[in-house]
Amino acid sequence: MKRASLFVAVAAILLIAFPLLATPISMGPQAMEGNLKVSPGDLLMAGYDFTIPGAHPTIQVAFVNPMVTFQAECVGGGGGGTIVVPIPGDIFTVPQNSSAWYPSGDQHSPLVFQGSVVVPALFGGGQITLRNGGTFTANLQASDTNRGVHVRWHYSANGSSGSWSATTRFRPSPILPDA
Question: Would you call 177 helix, strand, or coil by DSSP?
């Protein structure tokens, strides 16, 4: 009986502690698309890619709960609101010594626009500006925490270019169960 109680206690502690051990990353706000204007009903897409330069073993990299958050404003003035583009979490396997960008280095590839949202009617249906840009956040995990993971992100709507953000190096936390 004591073993069962101990097991339950340890399991409960791990379930609470594991999310706290993840490395949260945040990039932004950045306005790579300048004063991008969108209307309710437009599709706003966002995503990321990453690389691990230099010599390294095969590494698994996980992005947990990625999203891009925009502080939107009414083009005509008089208000603001938040638009969140949720991005599904994913785990990637990077081959030994590969310095390629994953899932793709092509900013126009659908592989790097992993999330999208229909722009909501925040201001009575009026046009919205994203001139303040967005902020990319996620929990970054990897099977090898001694290597830096270089991350960049972007967004696009209405045929905008989808230019990449600046690239930032992060040190990941270990891959956790259920990553």
Answer: coil
User: Is 31:132 a contact under the CB 8 Å cutoff?
Assistant: yes
Q: How far is CA 98 from CA 50, 58, 69, 113, 149, in A?
A: 11, 8, 31, 22, 12
Residue 91's nearest CA partner among 46, 146, 149 is 149
The SS3 assignment for 69 reads strand
Question: Taking the alpha carbons of 65, 68, 74, 80 in that order, is the dihedral positive or negative?
Answer: positive
Q: Model confidence over 111-150: pLDDT tens digits?
A: 999 999 999 998 888 999 999 999 999 999 999 999 999 9
Q: Tokens 């004063």 correspond to what residue?
A: 35
pTM of the entire predicted model:
0.86
